[in-house]
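question for whoever is on the cluster today: can someone run the full assembly for these? two chains, 504 residues total. i dont have access anymore since they changed the login thing
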Amino acid sequence: MSHLRVARSTDGIHFEVEGLPALVAATAYEGFGIEDPRITQLDGVYWITYTAVSNYGIGTGLASTTDFRKFERHGIIFPPPNRNVTIFPEKIGGQYAALHRPMPEGLGQHSIWTARSADLKSWGSHRVVATPRETGWDDTKVGGGAVPFKVHFEKEDGWLAIYHGVTGTPPVYSLGALLLNRYDPSKVRGRSREPILVPEAPYEKEGFFGSVVFTCGALNDGDLVRVYYGAADGVVAVADLSLQEILSGLVA
Amino acid sequence: MSHLRVARSTDGIHFEVEGLPALVAATAYEGFGIEDPRITQLDGVYWITYTAVSNYGIGTGLASTTDFRKFERHGIIFPPPNRNVTIFPEKIGGQYAALHRPMPEGLGQHSIWTARSADLKSWGSHRVVATPRETGWDDTKVGGGAVPFKVHFEKEDGWLAIYHGVTGTPPVYSLGALLLNRYDPSKVRGRSREPILVPEAPYEKEGFFGSVVFTCGALNDGDLVRVYYGAADGVVAVADLSLQEILSGLVA
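^ ran it for u. tokens below:
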């Protein structure tokens, strides 16, 4: 059953996966496992959002840790059907902020929304950020990926959020970027016209769920954007991208 | 387009509907209208939850008023797909509480959940209260109806929540009751084995959406439970029920 383990590395490329799980299914909302952790450091605490799968649906839980050995659960913060939750790494306008991805059927699409919170546990002020577009790569679903990080572009700070876009049957999952307003992350300054990463390698095209690149985390250092991503739901891979190339590919 | 109007009455039976709307669609989340208001009085303010329907899906918005003439909007408090939100009429354990009804498809059913809040605008601590049962009347969907009210039963206070249950194709909407723990409304003390109201009258069986009784509000005075409800999505009707009869029909 899906669970979360800690992997450690000194160079960010070679990892040692711990022998025992760090977080396993433990509540009624996690009966089919937990997946897709996104981790945000705030005030010395690592806050982990994760997808909780059960007979009640697919929702998002919150856990925290300071040492990646002992974890505390904080319950379901976005009830089903909602996943792909990333918490911004600092308060914005005095409140915490997150991206989330409700999954309406019939009316509404799988789109990226923002929410705001005073305590990381109760969320409100829900607003749409980005819906699927008719582009050929993110026309069916979009969802948050890596925790957004701050960048400077065209004389202004902004948040760069790497997200996934879905197209086709069977679905193909690619990655793109959103540049969000520094002070109001529901406002989109720019969005990748073309994907910044598409499934090409054999381990991205064939696997448990083929033709998928899906990120839960990225590092930024100068021009380097190092994206860690799940490939074909089978392995974790890494790709080094150029921040300037990502920014130059944005359109209004 | 669906909107909300004020209706006034001196006896609770004969109403005069105001000539002009009170709340009309006004945001991107209300593009197809607003529906199903539930009103809770807290500290002199009337808090109105309502279903907001748009291309973004079906979510729940919050508005408030003190005089039913001037209204203030507070945004989307439960993002799509989520409706049937009722706020409890007092704080429970120091926090506000609500019932809500997420609408997962595939994995999960349309079930009643609780959430908690410090300010009525941000919600967390999401927990399942009641899922559909194999009873023949609430086996497909369940959702909150009237704002819960406090009752005394078997030597303990509790919250009585009148909810709707759905069965069949085409669907039939009936009403039942949940008795919830006074201090933790996610805990169910009892639930109607049989419905307390089913579509029987011609105006309940035939209309815009036939075979529907659907409540957004009820009054309790002694043994009287006066239920106001939409009938066949065409008219508003009223039924007087006995609290003792409702309570005696509860099963574990």
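summary bc i know u wont read the tokens: The helical segments of chain A are 202-205, 243-248. Chain A has a mean pLDDT of 97.
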